[in-house]
Amino acid sequence: MSEPHSPSKKDVPKHLRRAISNKVVRARSKRKPRVYLATRFAGEPLREWVQRNLENSLSGNIFNATMAILSTFQALFHVSLNWSGLRIGLDPWMQEVDFSINLAFTLEYALHVYASFDRLEYVVGLFPMVEFAVVLPSWFDLLAAHVAGISSTSTLLQTSRMLRPLRFIRIFRLVQFATSSLQQQAWAAMLTIVSIVFTTAGVVQATEACLVACDDEPRVCKCRDLSFPNLLYFVVVSISTLGYGDIAPVSTSGKFVIAFVILFTFIVVPIQVNRIQATISSHTDYSSAYSEAKLHPHVILTGYMNAESLSIFFGEFFHPSNLNWNERVVILNASQPTSEINKVLHAYDSKVQYIVGSPMLDEDLTRAVLCDASACYVLVNRQSSRPQYADQCCGLITIALRRGNPTCPIYAQVINSRNAATLLKMGASDVVVIGMLKFSILGRSSQVWGLPTLLHNLLAQCNSDLDSHHSSLQWHRQYLHGYMHGIFLVDIPRTFSGLTFGDLIRFLYDKVSIIPLAMLTDDGVRFMDMEFKLGATADPNLCCKVYAIAKGLTAVEGVTKIPPEQILSYRKGVRRKGKSMSNNSLIEMKKIKPALGNEIDQIRDRIINMFTVAEDYDVEAALGLAEKRELADYELLPGEMSEYERFASLGVPEDVTDHIVVCGFPSDAYHFIKTIREAPMPDDLTPSPAIIFLAPNCIDEREYERLRGFIDVYFVQGSPVHFGDLKKTNIRWAISVLILTQASEAQYSDPNMVDADAITIVRYIVEISQRTRMPNLVVELDKSSNVKLLSSLANERRTSSAFGLPALVHRNVSHRSPRHHSVMSRRDSFWSSLDDGDGNVDATLVLEEFIASGRVFMNSMLDSLMSECYRKPWIAQFLHILITGSVNDLEERRLFQVEAPEELIALKRIALASDSGDPNVAWCSLIPASSSTRQRISRSNLATSST
């Protein structure tokens, strides 16, 4: 039986190559034969075929390079022959060499004349005329050698001697080797000056030479023999208008040549300098290519760019705790960076290179060195007024990147979940579905208090020394301790094989405070049953890969430092317990195979199938096709409203309570409602809460068709800042209020005003809720810095119990208290100390009351997730099933929240799992409640968490 094929490291992304230990020698594929001549098309004239080969073929390139080398050699050969003075007669070997080179130039000139489209236009061109004049001297010499009566002083040979220096002009052929327009202009300017100097020196040497012996002074003989170095010095001094006078022409023709060259230089050289200046001004720092590909691996970032997204992305990517500290980021964007983006680029000047170019053009992808890229990111415009068009642009960019590099991981963003499977088929390695992910989190946050902050803290990197900071506020220490934890992809050594997943959780939490959540399998990320027995992978040193919560890389590295003796001892103790399982469970678990992480195509196919099946099922269920077929022949009576008209105009029944009020309409309302409806409830008798949308305008009828399958969904037309409209939603009986930002493209002149509507609504709802029960309030912010404006509201209402912040956040300090300034100064000092750390985000935002209490969803979380895709493959899939569960998971494993039973209060976290009464339920996080509510615990039937 043959051994299974193991992929070589060249087929795997660079950050995953360390997972492959067994090396496989692969036979080299046969080199594709080179095509020297272009194929001649049927009916194509010979002249056009020759012209096409001269311009666009390997033979044409070789021919042009050979002619350029011969031109340079001929110029140097002429200098060597006339170095000490003008050589009148040549030795036979010199004549043979000169004639052979000249014959090659003659054949080249004839070939270009034959292949040119308009021969007359080509012949009268400047450079063709020079090339024709260059080949004449050798033919004149040949004619003089075979024709009697032609002396060395004859006009023919004198003309031949004057034309020979024009060979220096042929060195302009070296310009074709320039790789950019700036190099081309620089080479052209340099070669112009060199050609003028050397050609003039040669012409003056020929005109000033004494063809007949003369013993008088040069001014009397009207001639003089000068060496080539002296003539070079004379020409340089003359055209620079210095004119020392130590050397001067004595012949009339020599004086005329010098005068003409000086005037010619005054005209030509400034033109070349102006061209260089124009080229430099058109070339910015963003037009050069990435040149450090061999020294530093790099990733390519393209798509839609804005300053805040780049700041968050770079902060996560270049965080000191990441392993890819030596990598660079190459931004490829079609437009020049804005002033705000330039500020971000200057902060990472040595690690980021911005290239102005289109990912749709091969030459721009070549400048970004796509062939050697470690990964590619394609960002979408989240605020686009045309989401479908934005997704299509990301799809086209993905195709271009995959065409340029078939093996590079490509992580792309899309807005609409219906485009996710299509983008994966186009070549994306993984897709972050912005709309579905964002509104799934917002939907669950209406029932799982603090969920936005929990996920944001797990995804964002933080300072490594937060424990060393001290604050006068008692809740800071506990909160920051949890904030320091994050999600990591952990390699579990082979010595853990044989343990159950539940035993792995308990053992790792006890030894290194790591809490496994899910396992990477050949089907993607999966939540495992607590009784699942760990097996082994193809790697002899690896048991499996798990997503786990850990306090930094130090805790993750501690897994490999656990002595094998402790693992074996623990495994023996577990075996004595003799746990039994059903046969069905054993059969199902045997089908699960741990993955190394390099099964990219297989896992991607599973994700494509997941999105495709889920979308087909969702659309069919939402449209209610069966019901629609039954009512297909039903016609509305005169005056009777359609289902959509009733939804848009009837409003909310008066008896609706314990519901969710949403200010604004989500762009993906279907997945928002679906997440709420599928979320587990405390018991079977508790119905899923009703959902009421409050917005100025209703969704269109086509979008409503997707929502027809959901019950208890209502709409109120109005404004959230109008008390009468809020009263129609029965907000005093609502359990949650979600406020969506109304961000759109180019809506505000100041981009920081994008959250103005959401902040105004929050302040209004808090104001009218002071005398009533404050619901679970969650607001979406597009700009993270705007959360400070919300916290100013918290400072004003800090003594109000209606605000409902956690008890640890409550401080009996009023803004009118004389202690206010001292407390605020101590808090500002503490925040300043956090800013001095090595974190990637502003630590002051972490400690803002609205964030600490879990009331803010920041879109920066999506940028953090995008950056994590490179180091933690399939983390987007992990986050998706954590929030909404898996389609084919009958156990409905996901994150949910219940009130803590009184008997569990005051227990240590490690004791919760054993005392919970259900081995498949593990506790995730604790949310300190206000004095008026009981303590809440987030838990999951998948794993524990210590945030």
TrEMBL record:
Annotated keywords: Ion channel, Ion transport, Membrane, Potassium, Potassium channel, Potassium transport, Transmembrane, Transmembrane helix, Transport
SUPFAM superfamilies associated with the record: Voltage-gated potassium channels
MF term (GO), any: potassium channel activity
InterPro entries: Ion_trans_dom (IPR005821), K_chnl_BK_asu (IPR003929), K_chnl_Slo-like (IPR047871), RCK_N (IPR003148), Volt_channel_dom_sf (IPR027359)
Topology in membrane: Multi-pass membrane protein
GO cellular component: membrane
Location of this chain's protein in the cell: Membrane
Residue ranges of every copy of the RCK N-terminal domain listed in the record: 296-433
Protein name: RCK N-terminal domain-containing protein
